[in-house]
Amino acid sequence: MKLKEVLKPLFEYYDDEEEEDLSHLVSVKVAEALRPNMAHAAQVIYDKWDEEDIDTYAGGGICHYIADDICDVLSHHNIDCSPVSSCHEQHVYVIARFLEGVYSIDIHHSNYETGGGFSWKKIHDVEFTPRDIDFYRITPDPSEYHQYIENY
Q1: Rounded Cα gap, residues 62 and 72, in angstroms
Q2: What's the CA gap between 139 and 104, in Å, rounded?
Q3: Using an 8 Å Cβ cutoff, are 148 and 63 in contact?
Q4: Digits of tens for pLDDT over the chain (152 positions)?
Q5: Helix or strand or coil: residue 107?
C-alpha cells in the first residue's frame, strides 16, 4: 500500500470540514459609526468608578468594564466581539471581526488611569470622545477571529 493511499482518509476528513458561515459580517465602518455610543458607554463606567469601593474595584482599574460595555454596544448591532486580556500588559480590550478582517477596539488605559499590574488610579475629570476609540486591524482574514480571542 502506498503512503498516499494510507493518508487519503485524513485528507478527506479535513476536506469535508464545513467552512464557517461569515455572511452575517458587516463592514468595520458600521462599528466606526458607533464610536459615539462606545464613548458614552465608557463614560458611564468611568463616572461610576469610585476608587474607595474596594469590593467592586479591589484597587484595580476599569478597562475590563469598559471592554465589556464596548462589546455590548457592538453585540447589540450583531457584530462578533469578545473582551480579551492582553498577554503583553495588564489590560483588557475588545477583539471584533468584520468583512475587512479582525480588529482590536480599545480606549487606551493611559487616557483614564495610571498605574500598573492590579494597582490603578483614576485620572480625574476625563471625558471620552469618539476620537478616543482606537481601531487596529490585526489581520485581513475574518475567519482567524477565534485564534485571536483564544490566544490573547
Answers
A1: 15
A2: 10
A3: no
A4: 565 565 566 555 554 456 788 889 999 999 999 999 999 999 999 999 877 776 666 667 788 899 999 999 999 999 999 999 876 767 889 999 999 999 999 999 999 988 877 778 889 999 999 999 999 999 999 999 999 887 54
A5: coil
